[in-house]
Amino acid sequence: MAFLDRLDRAWSLSQSNLCVGLDPDPSKMPSRFSSQPNGIANFCIEIIDATADLVCAFKPQIAYFAAQRAEDQLETICNYIRSSHPDVVLILDAKRGDIGSTAANYAVEAFERFGADAVTVNPYLGTDSVEPFFEAGGGVIGLCRTSNPGGDDLQMLDTGGEPLFVRVAEMIAQRWSKLGDCGLVVGATYPNELSQVRQIVGDLPILVPGVGAQGGSADEVKVNGSRADGHGIIVNSSRAVLYASSGDDFASSARLVADNTRKSCSP
Amino acid sequence: MAFLDRLDRAWSLSQSNLCVGLDPDPSKMPSRFSSQPNGIANFCIEIIDATADLVCAFKPQIAYFAAQRAEDQLETICNYIRSSHPDVVLILDAKRGDIGSTAANYAVEAFERFGADAVTVNPYLGTDSVEPFFEAGGGVIGLCRTSNPGGDDLQMLDTGGEPLFVRVAEMIAQRWSKLGDCGLVVGATYPNELSQVRQIVGDLPILVPGVGAQGGSADEVKVNGSRADGHGIIVNSSRAVLYASSGDDFASSARLVADNTRKSCSP
């Protein structure tokens, strides 16, 4: 099943717009995991099992695995999500961006190696740079308006009456959506721009990071980003869920935070 | 030694502006490597030894390793370059782009895990997104004008009288260069824009892909991109060198192509 169908199904079954981001930081995980050879995977799997019925998607962030030489543990986690929670969408957060055969190799990484339903990409290299991802049959989620203050440096530049991020939203809605299943990233820290992007992109899914530790409001995201059916948004929370507690109750604490965020951002 | 000092030293010692890009594609390598458990590393090391005296830099492209589950072989290659050819600069081509702690993890990947002198990054997320790379002490090479036709989609958008890539060049020259050692990427397929960027960025190094298989001219790159001292450009060739021959003479053929390209693009 293709990304958008899988996502619609996940929203419908879970009645949740929440995505739990898997950003495993060994210094913040309960200490018992640090002595385990596959401690990162074990930690993430406990989080996954504690929250799977509350989410539409999981989103592992590959940088955290790359820094720990733990791509094998990321494979374990992705396999686990697909086999144990097959109705939850798997988004690889990698923000890849390259051209031609290099992009094709990143598509192999995301869709074959890790079996992701969709991967986040950077739009700076233009539409032909993402074609290899569509040709590989996976979903593509393009950065549009990022949650960091420095996002303004380029994304808010005036391009003939509209800021650059609006041009990116238009490119994704008008061109990428004809090539395959796609969506966009808009940070929760910019609720007005989220509303503006929703107007431009119709029913395309919007991945919204920045809730929780970064200060974005899940309620505002729901009001400004969701579609008429109450879905259309994938509201990501990573650190606030993963590190809700560093004690033995980390999984139940993660569930509590996830459930509260789910209630705020879901129909 | 920091990136720019290492690079100046490499240019001076090698008298070459050539960079050999390491994009190992098992389907194009001599067949004997495909049966070896570390065939990718073995192939690259033969290329490295055949060309090291002709280059200022090697540039492994991480996507080719990620698609093959071969990050360990990339570590082997990077260790080999640093120990056997310590005067050659090591650029990790990863085009990373993310924020905050995620960017910090990508910096660990590039500078600690792989020991790169510099890493390529995507500028779309703005200056604060690259600060973690500078804080980690490594060099940062930002995409400015990419060699693919689709680069026009965003990079040529008019932003108040100048195309976006000019704003990126200005951001890197004026802001990033105050944070640490940096450079830019401008594709060889756009010689006029290369000349324009050189005017903007002063003596900053420009990494120029797109020579060889992509059709850019090494001579034109030298004329349009080099500094008064004849250096300032890192002219990358990957496929044309790596796959000059698929026979037993692959390494000597690679050397021949590398030497010809070196002569065209160097002082």
Oligomer designation: homodimer
Instruction: Label the overall shape of chain A.
Output: globular
Compute the number of structural domains of chain A.
Answer: 1
**What is the string of SSEs of chain A from the N terminus onward?**
HEHEHHEHEHEHEEHEHEHEHH
Features:
homodimer, 267 residues, alpha/beta, TIM Barrel, eight-stranded parallel barrel, two-stranded antiparallel sheet, 12 helices, 46% helix, 17% strand, globular
Structure description:
By secondary structure, chain A is α/β, with parallel strands linked by helices. The first copy, chain A, has a single domain (3-265), classed as TIM Barrel. Chain A contains 12 helices and 10 strands. Chain A has helices spanning 3-14, 39-51, 62-66, 71-84, 100-113, 131-135, 152-155, 164-179, 191-201, 218-225, 239-242, 250-265; strands at 18-22, 57-60, 89-96, 118-121, 139-145, 158-159, 162-163, 182-186, 206-208, 233-237. Chain A has an 8-stranded parallel barrel, surrounded by 8 helices. Chain A starts with a helix and ends with a helix. The model of chain A has no long low-confidence stretch (mean pLDDT 97).
Write the layout of secondary structure elements.
Two copies of one chain form a homodimer.
Chain A: H1 3-14, E1 18-22, H2 39-51, E2 57-60, H3 62-66, H4 71-84, E3 89-96, H5 100-113, E4 118-121, H6 131-135, E5 139-145, H7 152-155, E6 158-159, E7 162-163, H8 164-179, E8 182-186, H9 191-201, E9 206-208, H10 218-225, E10 233-237, H11 239-242, H12 250-265
